[in-house]
Amino acid sequence: VDGGKNTAALLVTDAVRYRLFGPMEFAMTASAVAAVVERVCAVLSDAAVRVGVEAAGHYHRQLLGRGVWRA
Questions:
Q1: What pLDDT, on a 0 to 100 scale, did the predictor assign at position 69?
Q2: Do residues 10 and 36 make contact, with C-beta atoms less than 8 angstroms apart?
Q3: 3-state class (DSSP) for residue 71
Q4: Which pairing describes strands 2-3 and 19-27: parallel, antiparallel, or unpaired?
Q5: Do 26 and 38 meet the contact criterion of CB atoms below 8 Å apart?
Q6: What predicted TM-score, i.e. pTM, was given to this entire model?
Q7: Which residue from 12, 37, 53, 69 puts its CA 20 to 30 A from 46's CA?
Q8: What single DSSP character describes residue 46?
Q9: Long-range CB contacts (< 8 A, 24+ apart) of 28-37?
């Protein structure tokens, strides 16, 4: 995930780096982040998810907050 002030870009791959979807851009709003998380969870089903986020000042913090990604 490449997070910015107003938008973020995302690419999802499986464990062997086969592209599942993306790249895509989404707004950095609670509803947009929730929709992206739902889409990632739907594509990966019960697989463990590893999230890589570019360090971008403080803009990435809402993507890494407690409870954003399902446990």
A1: 58
A2: yes
A3: coil
A4: unpaired
A5: no
A6: 0.64
A7: 53
A8: T
A9: 28/3, 28/4, 28/59, 28/62, 30/62, 33/62, 33/63, 33/68, 36/10, 37/68, 37/69, 37/70
Cα dihedral 42, 2, 52, 16 in deg (nearest 10): 60
* Cα distance between residue 42 and residue 51, in whole Å: 15
Predicted confidence at residue 44, as pLDDT, reads: 78
Q: What angle do CA 50, 53, 59 make, to 5 degrees?
A: 140
pLDDT tens series, the chain, 71 aa: 677 678 888 888 887 888 888 888 988 887 888 898 888 888 876 766 677 767 666 555 566 666 665 54
Q: Which amino acid is present at 41? A: C
Length, in residues, of the chain? 71
